[in-house]
Amino acid sequence: MNVFLAQQADRIDVPAIDYAAILPMLIILGAACIGVLFEAFLPKHQRWPGQVVLTLLAIAAAGVALGAYVGDSPARGVTTLSGTLSIDKPALFLWGTLLALALGAVLLIADRSIEPGGAFVAQAGIAPGTVQDRAQVGSTGMQTEVFPLALFALGGMMAFCSANDLLTMFIALEVLSLPLYLMCGLARRRRLLSQEAAVKYFLLGAFASAFFLYGLALLYGYAGSVKLADIANATAGTDRSDTLLFAGLGLLMVGLLFKGSVGPFHTWTPDVYQGAPTPVTAFMAACTKVAAFGGMLRVLAVAFESTSWEWRGVLWGVAIISMVIGAVLGLTQTDVKRMIAYSSIAHAGFLLVGTMALTEDGLSGTLFYLLAYGFTTLAAFGVISLVRDSSGEATHLSAWAGLAKRSPLLAAVFTFLLLALAGIPLTSGFVGKFVVFSAALSDGMAPLVVIALVFSAVAAFFYLRVVVLMYFSEPAPDGPTVSVPGAFTTAAITLGVAVTLLLGVLPAFALNWAGAGGFALS
Amino acid sequence: MTWLLALILLPLAGALVVAGLRSNDRLATTVALAVSLVELALIVPFWLAYDPAGERIQQASSMEWIPTFGIHISFGTDGISLIMIAVIALLVPIIIGTLNSTGKLPEGRSAGGFLSLVLVQEALTIAVFAATDVFLFYVLFEIMLIPMYFLIGGYGGANRQYAAVKFFLYSFLGGLIMLASAIGAYSLASDELGQGTFDWATLVEVVRDAPASTQIWLFLGFFLAFAIKAPLVPFHTWLPDAAGQAPIGVTVLLVGVLDKVGTFGFLRYCLPMFPEASERLAPLVLVLAVAGVIYGSVLAAGQQDMKRFVAYVSIAHFGFIALGIFAFTPQSVVGSATYMLNHSLATGMLIIVVGIIAARGGSTRISDYGGMAKVTPILGGMLLIAGLSTLSLPGTNSFISEFLVLLGSFDTRPVYAIIATVGMVLAAAYVLWLYQRIMTGPVRGDALVGAVEDPAARSASVVGGGGRRVGGPGTAVAPEVGEKKAIRDLSVKEIAVLAPLVVLIVGLGFYPKPVLDTVTPSVEATLTAVQER
């Protein structure tokens, strides 16, 4: 060993690190580490306030660092850490989106006014139905590790969006996934459902990671490098094996599509969205989708643009399947959280339409869509967490009947969010659909756009069903109560609704941000 | 600020105020009525400011909205949208004025909520007719569905939820398909001009020179949306449900005004933007139009429910309007454009009268009535006037329009014109048959019978024995009648509210010149675009 080091010492170059560029990510990951230390050293009663302050401060500081860097960031982006991370305009936009969405999600996670002690159980390891579990029901203790876990996941997502080679991407994928698996199992109520969700997500997620890794290996075999740019060079006119390339790309995409909950790789989505604590569902639905599609955009645009003719047909099929599954199965759901889960599958199909477009408009459209969708779905889950009965959240649709009579403001807010998810004009959802579909149309995907529009209308039906239920049905006598949200949840919902409205009415500034520049291609 | 912008903003502001008065129904109704009357008064300077010989689009105003896509918030009016805006402003105060005569709102619903939605609907509908940016038009086209959805779903009949969702989904789907076409037109423009725009006038210039195959696809997108909106057979099935379930005032708005967005769209978007496609696909549209005329007429004759009757009558009339538009002659298109106005007046009045009858008689089934004119002669007269205008009797407003449509289309499309003429004959049959069943013959129906006979005498006879129940269908249900309030004829106030419609129906029947003069230059400009090609 010593000999080896002595021989190599003069040849090791310390890679240049552009600290200013990656500062936001460093802040988040650093704060996550401090959060773990808080868990170890702070007394129990100080942990919750300590973690909340630390997490919010970290996100705010990362936002400030990002804002300071964006102003004078180079137009073509920079690659740093020996080319493993590429901090270009889309990456910065995605980081900003992730930080803003995470802020909202953390506010939901931090809320302890709706459910005494917060939405998270103290000891998640206790098997449901045992004596200890029954004892735990009465306590208001909370697993405050959820905060550092959220920060780790967030850091992973940020790395995932900017990863410039597949290996970094894989590591980032694991960093973002592992905390999420844990967080899914932490629900205070309906423990069994929550644990099932965690296990299911973990097992299927592990499978998807394996697919990703296998694809990575095949692509390495094909190109002799894991760097996206090298793969792009290798695909440009060589006599290497196409089998390796397309098998590798296919497996890689399975892993990515799984994370983005695109049908037919969606099967985990409804169960996990339903079982996970609602704040975590909001975090996953908003942020994971951003990260997954951010990664997908980069991989397809940077590494596989020249072969787009070969794979686009397959992705057409995937997008159509996703829209069909999301829209049609969404119609049959009786649980609000599952319904929004299917809606997210349909939205993933729409997002894929934009992702495939591989043009400047396609990129900026998809980025805008992610921003818009994230805030809407975040606020929607925030609202869902407020409608409760004695056993926790009343997510069965029948419980929502006549809600407008009992709580007109909540019904109005939720209606607005549902209209945004349906893509009605003057909401961000419509502008998102418009930019994505117009990009796809000008890139010659007219039939796909028409199909997407038809399924938008089909999906609108199940959003409308909830509106009908809330406004035109008589309330059930033993219906749920609507909790008065605490400051944190109010802030999160307000943030989501305000952004949904703002991006719907005055989208110009966000469209400019999203269209600031393309991926760095080196 | 132009008069047009004032017309759009005033009802919105009014809606806000009225929504704040939900606790006080009387005050809310008064304020809403006042707002709608001021709106109607604003029509006068608005109409006077319009110069038929002037620019194609007048009172234009524009501001940037989404510069990335060349989208503007721009409004303007031509003769056709002018008359449609005027008729909305006329109908809304009449709807509010007859609110109490045409049936009660459901339990627990306030008049304030209802009226603020009506005012929002008024503003949005005016804005749709006034939009001169295709994107803005689409946005308003879809947004317009939301208040209507809540009006039908929140205040309608027993099956209102189904009707509201069906209405929304049909129109929403049509709108989305139109959006695809609008984006297609936008990308044509951005290829051609280097920078995309949604400005209507610019898009017309660019798209009308596009190759025929492209035009046909884009045309179909717009056409589908408009064919659903102005229901052409076979896209009509939502209308009888929506019109049948909606409260009367909303049915007036829906059938009288909202559906005209469809025929207006044919004139404003389909013809000028896609002249070649319009010409090539005209036979298809004409088949649908004539099928609508015959189908609507036959089904109207067979309806048992008065509101559904009106819906099918309208389907027949929309067939006429589409026939005139796609016959491409100046007479027929002028006929169609004025028909849009006249149909609003005639059908609007018919629906309101039907609503008053239903509210008094407690039923919308035609067979529950008979001999009503003996009890309520003035109401009978109103139904007759509305009906005669609906069947286009010479001397009523609709006659001129229908005559122009048939005359114009006979020049170029004689076969379709002849078949459509059959619709005119059928119209006479179904309207007169409706009048005959409700107003003439022996007095029938529990409410009516109660009004003619002396309640005390009849309840005594029931106590005396059931044997006398053979007297007629009406007496069979006599026992409860004694407690019912006798049916009233129209009050002076109700006559006053309906009077403007009567005056216009008869007045425009004899002197249609102001409307024809307003519309003709816009129609000619539209047709030159088609023929110039």
From TrEMBL, chain A:
<feature type="transmembrane region" description="Helical">
    <location>
        <begin position="408"/>
        <end position="428"/>
    </location>
</feature>
<keyword id="KW-0874">Quinone</keyword>
<comment type="similarity">
    <text>Belongs to the complex I subunit 2 family.</text>
</comment>
<keyword id="KW-0813">Transport</keyword>
<keyword id="KW-0520">NAD</keyword>
<dbReference type="InterPro" id="IPR010096">
    <property type="entry name" value="NADH-Q_OxRdtase_suN/2"/>
</dbReference>
<feature type="transmembrane region" description="Helical">
    <location>
        <begin position="448"/>
        <end position="472"/>
    </location>
</feature>
<feature type="domain" description="NADH:quinone oxidoreductase/Mrp antiporter transmembrane">
    <location>
        <begin position="163"/>
        <end position="455"/>
    </location>
</feature>
<comment type="function">
    <text>NDH-1 shuttles electrons from NADH, via FMN and iron-sulfur (Fe-S) centers, to quinones in the respiratory chain. The immediate electron acceptor for the enzyme in this species is believed to be a menaquinone. Couples the redox reaction to proton translocation (for every two electrons transferred, four hydrogen ions are translocated across the cytoplasmic membrane), and thus conserves the redox energy in a proton gradient.</text>
</comment>
<comment type="subunit">
    <text>NDH-1 is composed of 14 different subunits. Subunits NuoA, H, J, K, L, M, N constitute the membrane sector of the complex.</text>
</comment>
<keyword id="KW-1278">Translocase</keyword>
<dbReference type="GO" id="GO:0042773">
    <property type="term" value="P:ATP synthesis coupled electron transport"/>
</dbReference>
<keyword id="KW-0472">Membrane</keyword>
<feature type="transmembrane region" description="Helical">
    <location>
        <begin position="339"/>
        <end position="359"/>
    </location>
</feature>
<keyword id="KW-1003">Cell membrane</keyword>
<feature type="transmembrane region" description="Helical">
    <location>
        <begin position="91"/>
        <end position="110"/>
    </location>
</feature>
<feature type="transmembrane region" description="Helical">
    <location>
        <begin position="484"/>
        <end position="509"/>
    </location>
</feature>
<keyword id="KW-1133">Transmembrane helix</keyword>
<dbReference type="GO" id="GO:0005886">
    <property type="term" value="C:plasma membrane"/>
</dbReference>
<feature type="transmembrane region" description="Helical">
    <location>
        <begin position="199"/>
        <end position="223"/>
    </location>
</feature>
<feature type="transmembrane region" description="Helical">
    <location>
        <begin position="365"/>
        <end position="387"/>
    </location>
</feature>
<feature type="transmembrane region" description="Helical">
    <location>
        <begin position="243"/>
        <end position="262"/>
    </location>
</feature>
Automatic annotation (TrEMBL), chain B:
<feature type="transmembrane region" description="Helical">
    <location>
        <begin position="31"/>
        <end position="50"/>
    </location>
</feature>
<dbReference type="GO" id="GO:0012505">
    <property type="term" value="C:endomembrane system"/>
</dbReference>
<feature type="domain" description="NADH:quinone oxidoreductase/Mrp antiporter transmembrane">
    <location>
        <begin position="131"/>
        <end position="425"/>
    </location>
</feature>
<feature type="transmembrane region" description="Helical">
    <location>
        <begin position="309"/>
        <end position="328"/>
    </location>
</feature>
<dbReference type="GO" id="GO:0048039">
    <property type="term" value="F:ubiquinone binding"/>
</dbReference>
<dbReference type="InterPro" id="IPR001750">
    <property type="entry name" value="ND/Mrp_TM"/>
</dbReference>
<feature type="transmembrane region" description="Helical">
    <location>
        <begin position="340"/>
        <end position="359"/>
    </location>
</feature>
<feature type="transmembrane region" description="Helical">
    <location>
        <begin position="495"/>
        <end position="512"/>
    </location>
</feature>
<dbReference type="InterPro" id="IPR003918">
    <property type="entry name" value="NADH_UbQ_OxRdtase"/>
</dbReference>
<feature type="transmembrane region" description="Helical">
    <location>
        <begin position="371"/>
        <end position="395"/>
    </location>
</feature>
<feature type="transmembrane region" description="Helical">
    <location>
        <begin position="135"/>
        <end position="155"/>
    </location>
</feature>
<feature type="transmembrane region" description="Helical">
    <location>
        <begin position="81"/>
        <end position="99"/>
    </location>
</feature>
<dbReference type="Pfam" id="PF00361">
    <property type="entry name" value="Proton_antipo_M"/>
</dbReference>
<dbReference type="GO" id="GO:0008137">
    <property type="term" value="F:NADH dehydrogenase (ubiquinone) activity"/>
</dbReference>
<feature type="transmembrane region" description="Helical">
    <location>
        <begin position="415"/>
        <end position="435"/>
    </location>
</feature>
<comment type="similarity">
    <text>Belongs to the complex I subunit 4 family.</text>
</comment>
<dbReference type="GO" id="GO:0015990">
    <property type="term" value="P:electron transport coupled proton transport"/>
</dbReference>
<dbReference type="GO" id="GO:0042773">
    <property type="term" value="P:ATP synthesis coupled electron transport"/>
</dbReference>
<keyword id="KW-0812">Transmembrane</keyword>
<feature type="transmembrane region" description="Helical">
    <location>
        <begin position="216"/>
        <end position="235"/>
    </location>
</feature>
<feature type="transmembrane region" description="Helical">
    <location>
        <begin position="111"/>
        <end position="129"/>
    </location>
</feature>
<dbReference type="GO" id="GO:0003954">
    <property type="term" value="F:NADH dehydrogenase activity"/>
</dbReference>
